[in-house]
Amino acid sequence: MKHGPAVELGVDLASKKKARLGVWFFLIYFVFYAGFVAIGVTNYELLGMKVIGEQNLAVVYGIGLIVFAVVLGIIYNAICTSYEDKLNNTEKS
Fold it and tell me: pLDDT (tens digit, 9 = 90+) per residue, 41-64?
């Protein structure tokens, strides 16, 4: 059995905006991640400090980075979907 694509793919008029947004989100995440690495390199004892209950800064910051990445992904998806709806539907009109 030979199957073709499920949908016909066309030109994505929103690709430049989505790429620019992706770079900005990467840079935002990079700043937070670089802060974590900088603390680990310059003052690693600080990562052992208890901040929430019995959890140290390393655990809280690390889990925060993971949650932040997921939130950024959800926001990126929502914004890109709106870009696609606005820009790609104008082509069909």
Answer: 999 999 999 999 999 999 999 999
Residue 1: pLDDT band by 50, 70, 90 thresholds? low
DSSP class of residue 13 equals T
Q: What is the DSSP letter of 50?
A: E
**C-alpha distances in Å from residue 43, one per residue of 31, 51, 53, 64:** 17, 16, 21, 19
pTM comes to 0.80
Burial environment of residue 51 by CB neighbours within 10 A (0 to 12, 13 to 18, 19 or more):
middle
Judge whether 25 and 72 are in contact, CB under 8 Å: yes
Using alpha carbons, select from 1, 2, 72 the residue that is nearest to residue 32.
72
The strand ranges marked E within 1-93 are 50-52, 55-56
